[in-house]
Amino acid sequence: NNMLGLLVCALIAALCVADDNGLAMTPPMGWRSWNYYGGNLRQSTMEATMKAIVDRSRLVDGHPTSLADLGYTDVGLDDCWQKCGSYGPQQYTYHNATGWPQVDQSKFPSLKNMTMFAHSLGLKAGFYSNNCDCHDHCADEYCF
């Protein structure tokens, strides 16, 4: 009975095929702003953190190495980038009347430039769009 189980497992393993395209060689690894800064964050802090992630002033086995070199290439902006308010007839708290999220430009002058900066460093950038800070209630499809 044990031999039959091993044989079945071996046959199933032989049938499993994975794409060898270089993607998902590791789980997504990176840094999220909320874990350290919570809501106390600005674009300049995000960009300084991105520089720190690619900084090669640390040695690993005698070689200058960054966190990005080790696979930590995802950088995420969590909550508190939104401009909380009251928008449109539905009174959304951070989406305007047509569903576009409103950015607090006093803290984040340009999310586009910040994302381009991340890409210039070889990092992948993203941001958390399921807002908690403004308690938005927009559930229409144009808010996603």
Characterization of this structure:
The structure is a single chain. With 144 residues, the protein is α/β, with parallel strands linked by helices. The protein is 28% helix and 12% strand. It has four helices and five strands; from the N terminus they run H-E-H-H-E-E-E-H-E. The strands form two sheets. Strands 1-4-5 form a three-stranded parallel β-sheet. Helix 4 links the parallel strand 4 and strand 5. Helix 3 runs parallel beside helix 4. The protein is flat. 20% of the residues are buried. The mean pLDDT is 84.
Descriptive labels:
5 strands, 144 residues, two-stranded antiparallel sheet, 4 helices, alpha/beta, three-stranded parallel sheet
Short précis:
The chain is an alpha/beta fold and about 140 residues long. The protein is about 30% helix and about 10% strand. The protein has helices at about 1-15, 35, 45-55, 110-120; strands spanning about 30, 60, 65, 75, 125.
